[in-house]
Q: What sequence folds into this?
């Protein structure tokens, strides 16, 4: 279990303003993600990160006051990637079961880039309680992405109903995806199909029944 830290999130010591400094910060975050995935939290050091990023330790500390602030930046980038992926699906104008398939693929893809990294962020690296705040800016926007998808698939719902369904659905899908990352099974086609089925049956029960009926009929025909 990762350590939970109560208190304010630690931001960058010095926000990058020029293109070169922004590139340095991005290189450090990317190197930090790679090192964390390779060696785990116990062996994670700023020296290794700086060397991998092609920067000096001094340059690293210009932006990140300590390892915790760097872990925070790595975790925040992952959250930003998740939001960006769902926004793209939301903006695609897709409807019905195609939307569900795109949604599941977006969740799996964003957690498959560095699956070992996600396991370490979940289970080893210290985690600020603020990241678990249900009223944080990230959580609010993340749930709103789900709300819009739910209302696209279920136009009969009021927004309050869609909000509750969105919370239940996001908790269910995130739980499965995060545990699959822990187990190393995110690439399983069977897992993808089960997640699509879960979302379909929950939001489009008639479509889910038709899909299951087609599968049963095909199986009976084969026998």
A:
């Amino acid at each position: 279990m990762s350590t939970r830290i109560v208190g304010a999130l630690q931001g960058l010591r010095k926000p990058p303003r020029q293109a070169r400094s922004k590139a340095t910060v991005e290189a450090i975050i990317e190197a930090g993600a790679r090192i964390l995935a390779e060696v785990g939290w116990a062996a994670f050091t700023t020296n290794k990160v700086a060397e991998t990023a092609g920067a000096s330790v001094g340059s690293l500390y210009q932006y990140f006051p300590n390892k915790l602030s760097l872990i925070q930046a790595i975790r925040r980038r992952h959250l930003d990637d998740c939001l960006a992926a769902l926004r793209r699906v939301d903006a695609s104008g897709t409807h019905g079961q195609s939307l569900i398939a795109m949604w599941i693929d977006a969740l799996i893809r964003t957690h498959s880039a560095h699956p070992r990294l996600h396991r370490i962020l979940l289970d080893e690296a210290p985690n600020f309680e603020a990241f678990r705040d249900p009223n944080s800016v990230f959580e609010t926007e993340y749930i709103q992405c789900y709300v819009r998808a739910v209302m696209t698939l279920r136009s009969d719902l009021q927004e309050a109903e869609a909000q509750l369904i969105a919370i239940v659905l996001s908790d269910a899908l995130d739980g499965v995806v995060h545990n699959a990352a822990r187990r190393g099974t995110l690439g399983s086609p069977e897992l993808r199909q089960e997640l699509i089925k879960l979302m379909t049956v929950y939001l489009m029960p008639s479509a889910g029944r038709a899909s299951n009926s087609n599968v049963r009929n095909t199986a009976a025909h084969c026998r």
